[in-house]
Predict the structure.
Amino acid sequence: MPNVVEDLSRKLREFAIARDWVQFQSPKNLSMALVVEAAELVEHFQWLTEEESLAIREAKGAQKHQEIAYEMADILAYLLRIADQLDVDLVRALEEKMAINEKRYPADKVKGSARKYSDY
């Protein structure tokens, strides 16, 4: 079965190598770029109601929805490049983090609450 994350990481690495951009793509620089892209994503939702943000395509149209999708793609690209630079298996890390969160936030204790695990 193909590994989508590894395939995307390889394509992004090859893209950067072909343009001689690896020299600029340190984890520090990539993480700063990721934050910038995250802020650009947030801009699309600034001042919207909860309902409008959930129905963005209906509220703002297909063009706005596509712009948001591209911001999310930029975030994913930078995250994958950081993981590649630091040799982090993001899928494994996410699975491990989900297991940690299962213990921190047992459903019977936290259902319907947004409090932090240290508040229980």
